[in-house]
Each structure stands twice: as structure tokens, then as C-alpha cells.
Specification:
Elongation Factor Tu (Ef-tu), domain 3, 2 domains, about 475 residues, alpha+beta, globular
Length: about 475
């Protein structure tokens, strides 16, 4: 926990209400997200019990497994869920637009699907359901509907994207809310959607602590899933399952789903009220690029079910991408949001100050042609540890990079490049003037080369040697818990 987050939590305790950690919303929100509230049978991994799903708050669809231990009924449930999810995904493919980041005339979809689940448990449910369905056969013994493995592939795709910093294709709302507000309770308590919203938006006449305390009553606010309350399991669910009365079971499960359904849309409205960060559309465009590519691979028949375990080289490459994307996401948030930038300043990774000297006409003549490279000197009181060659970016001039030339605290000499026009004289206002207050943060939004990894065929023996080519088989669907 950072110093500013700890301070915001203390202020939340004193004020009795959650305190903002950001000034803008750093997550994209679709106009019509697909909200999914899943419930799973206790003690059974990836055994769906019920779900409430839809992209319209007023018209959710409720899916129920009358006997969760019956394999046929479970996969009928999955087929129904697949019909809803795949239809939602396909509706995002109706409109295309030119992709400005690609050469030639390549197109991409103008929209992409966005799935919202209540909490981290919902993410795990998506992972397990995707893993348990994407290998199922649509022919032979124990055949399932053809939409079942398709759903499994898409759920696995969404869950993989959720690990990419800044991606908004699959979001757990408790994590999104906790990234934008600090409450006066623990991180574990923030995992409760009802308690978290109680701190952020308490009902009239209540403060955060009282609203959160009421949220602990499972009769008022059932758990947001996928696990259900043990008292509900023993006293209500078990008799309803054994009674064989579908209407009684549906009534019981709706009582667990409907409160969370309302909380999900309440959270969406709270997040929509925040102004969108400047770099959010850039990250959503990246999601649309990935969605377009994956949909194309499915249409071409090239998208095999994702393997259960990545090869050593693939796993290392994925980790390298995730680390670079996390650094890029952190930098984008800092440039979008002064509260996030303050976190970097406290950590010594950014600084603010006043321009006390400037040479706006300086040119670098070391190359074949002279180029404009002004120098400015910034006086700062921030606790920074800077070395020559480090590169920063100012939120006021995001197209311009500033490279540290000399450090003699409290003075920092910076060389500016970019964002000044194409002439040897800088455009007016493109260079900070004397006395101007400036802030410089991390420039990791710039291109970073991927790590050097061996080819798949050159996997070293320490990592198992070159792996065999993956070919889906009947044994893939087998799990210790299935």
C-alpha cells in the first residue's frame, strides 16, 4: 500500500465515507456491457448452479441448473449461457473501421465485447468454466452442443485478457472500484461488493461503516458469488434441490442473484459518473485490435482450443508482455491523473518544479543535419534520484520527451525532443517558459523492445527442451475435479 493510499484510507475512516484515489476513470466502460453474476455449487469446482446475465439492467436472463451434479443438465446450462454470450460477441462484429495503427487498408471492429463480473471469484469462475468446456467434443459419447466448446474458447480468451494491465474486456467490479476509491476497511473486506459500495455510496441516513456492517448480513445482501452463504446452502438450497420443485429452487436462487444484479449496475453508474482518462480510448483500441485478430482466427478455423499449459518459451514471452504492458499502463495513468502522478513523485519516479533557465534555440549538430534540442533547467524539491539519460514526459506536453542531461539537486537540466514543430525554431508555447510550473513523469509509454527469447525449437533442456506440437485430444477435457 502506498503512502497516499494509506492516507486516503485514514481519511475515509475519519470522514465515514470512501475517498477518491483518482480524478478520472482509468477503465473503459461500454455503453452495453454484458453483466454476469454466476453461482457455483459449494464443494464442486466449475459446477455451475445458476447465473443472471444480460446487457440490460431491466431485462436479465436467469439460468438455473436444477440438479448441478447431473452432467447433462450442467452442459445444457452452459449451452444456454453460450447462446447469450456468443450472440453478444457477434453483435460487436457488425461494424468495422480503418485501423490507423496498421499499414495498408487493414480494418478492425469498431467495438468489442465487455464482460463484467462482481469480484475476483467471478474471474476464477470464468477461468474454470472456460477450461472445463473448451475441450468438449461435439460428437461421439458425451457429445455436447457445438456452442459449448466455442464458449469455452471465448471465456478462456477473456480471462487471459484480464491479466493484461489496462484491458477492459473482462472486469471484476470490486477491483475496479477499489482502484478508484479508498475505503476505511481492509482489502479483504473490499472484496465484498455490497460492503465496498456501502463505503462509496452509502444509503441515505447511513455512513460507510454502518452501511458496510449491514452488508455483512447475508439475508440483506447475499454474497456476490460464485460461492453462496453456508446457511443458505444448508437451510434453503439443499431442501429446494431435494424437493424436485423447479419453482421453489428458482425462487431461492433469485433471492441470491437479484441483490447482486442491482449492485453491479449501481457500480457501473458510479464509475460512469467519473470523467474518462485521456489514454482510456487508446487502451480500448488495443482491446479491439486483439478482439479483431482473435475473431479472424476463429472465422478462418485457425483458433484451436488454448492448451492447458503454455510451453516454456510461450510462458516467458507472455510474462515479458505483461510486464511491459503494466509499465505502460502505470505511465499512462500518471500522465492522465495528478493523483496518480503524486504517487510516482513520492516514490521518486517523477518530479515537479519550476523552470529557472531555458535555451529554446539550442540545436544538436552532432549528426548529419542540425536538429532542435532545447535545454531547460528545472528547480525541484521532490525527493528524486535521477541519472543522466533517463527519459520523462510532461502531462502538459505528452508528445514531447525530456531526457536528463545533468543533475545537481535541486536543479535538473533536461533536453527536449519532439512536439515542437518541424522547423529549427520551436512553435510558440511548445517549450516551457521561465517561471512555468512543470511536472515530469515516467515515459514508459514509449516503445519498449520485447525480451530476447529462444525460438520454440530452441527451448533449453533446463526447461524441458523443444515441446511437442500441441494437438487437442480426448484427454484434454479430463480434470481431477471433473
Amino acid at each position: 500500500m502506498s503512502l497516499l493510499t494509506a492516507l486516503a484510507r485514514a481519511q475515509a475512516v475519519e470522514a465515514g465515507r470512501a475517498q477518491p484515489l483518482t480524478t478520472v476513470r482509468h477503465t473503459y466502460l461500454s455503453d452495453r456491457p454484458l453483466v454476469l453474476v454466476p453461482l457455483a455449487l459449494a464443494g464442486e469446482a466449475a459446477a455451475p448452479l445458476a447465473a443472471m446475465v444480460g446487457d440490460d439492467e431491466a431485462a436479465p436472463t436467469t439460468l438455473i441448473v436444477n440438479n448441478p451434479r447431473d452432467r447433462t443438465q450442467r452442459f445444457s446450462f452452459v449451452a444456454e449461457l453460450a447462446g447469450i454470450v456468443l450472440s453478444y460477441v457477434n453483435r460487436r462484429t457488425r461494424t468495422v473501421e480503418p485501423n490507423p495503427a496498421s499499414r495498408g487498408t487493414k480494418m478492425r471492429y469498431a467495438d468489442a465485447p465487455q464482460l463484467l463480473v462482481p469480484n475476483a471469484g467471478g474471474l476464477e469462475f470464468i477461468r474454470l468454466l472456460g477450461r472445463s468446456t473448451r475441450f468438449r467434443r461435439t460428437y461421439g459419447q458425451f457429445a455436447v452442443h457445438r456452442s459449448v466448446p466455442q464458449l469455452g474458447q471465448w471465456l478462456t480468451f477473456f480471462r487471459d485478457r484480464a491479466d493484461h494491465a489496462g484491458s477492459a474486456m473482462l472486469l471484476a467490479l470490486t477491483e475496479v472500484l477499489a482502484a478508484h476509491w479508498a475505503t476505511g476497511q481492509s482489502n479483504l473486506e473490499d472484496a465484498s461488493l455490497a460492503a465496498l459500495l456501502g463505503w462509496i455510496d452509502p444509503a441515505e441516513g447511513l455512513d460507510g461503516p454502518r452501511a458496510a456492517a449491514l452488508a455483512e448480513d447475508p439475508l440483506l445482501w447475499p454474497p456476490a458469488g460464485p460461492s453462496t452463504d453456508p446457511s443458505f446452502d444448508n437451510e434453503i438450497l439443499a431442501p429446494a434441490l431435494t424437493s424436485g420443485n423447479p419453482r421453489s429452487l428458482e425462487t431461492a436462487l433469485r433471492s441470491q442473484l437479484e441483490p447482486t444484479w442491482g449492485l453491479m449496475w449501481r457500480a457501473v453508474r458510479l464509475l460512469r459518473a467519473l470523467p474518462e482518462g485521456a489514454s482510456v480510448p487508446v487502451r480500448w483500441a488495443a482491446d479491439r485490435d486483439v478482439f479483431t485478430a482473435y475473431q479472424a482466427s476463429i472465422m478462418d478455423g485457425a483458433a484451436l482450443p488454448q492448451p492447458r499449459v503454455d510451453s516454456a518459451v510461450a510462458a516467458a514471452g507472455r510474462l515479458d508482455r505483461l510486464e511491459r504492458e503494466q509499465a505502460r499502463y502505470d505511465a499512462q495513468r500518471a500522465l492522465d491523473d495528478p493523483l496518480v502522478m503524486a504517487e510516482f513523485r513520492l516514490a521518486g519516479e517523477a518530479f515537479a518544479g519550476t523552470v529557472v533557465a531555458a535555451d529554446p534555440k539550442r540545436r544538436d549538430t552532432s549528426g548529419k543535419r542540425p536538429v532542435l534540442r532545447p535545454h531547460i533547467t528545472v528547480e525541484t524539491s521532490d525527493p528524486v534520484q535521477l541519472d543522466p539519460g533517463m527519459t520523462f514526459v510532461s502531462p502538459a506536453r505528452p508528445a514531447q520527451t525530456a531526457t536528463v542531461v545533468e543533475v545537481d539537486l535541486p536543479l535538473v537540466v533536461l533536453e527536449l525532443a519532439g512536439g515542437m514543430g518541424r522547423k529549427l525554431t520551436a512553435d510558440e508555447g511548445s517549450i516551457p517558459g521561465l517561471g512555468e510550473a512543470v511536472t515530469y513523469g515516467p515515459a514508459t509509454d514509449a516503445y519498449q523492445p520485447p525480451g530476447r527469447l529462444p525460438s520454440r525449437d530452441a527451448t533449453p533442456w533446463t526447461h524441458g527442451g523443444p515441446p511437442a506440437e500441441y494437438v487437442p485430444s480426448d484427454t484434454d477435457a479430463g480434470e481431477e475435479w471433473s
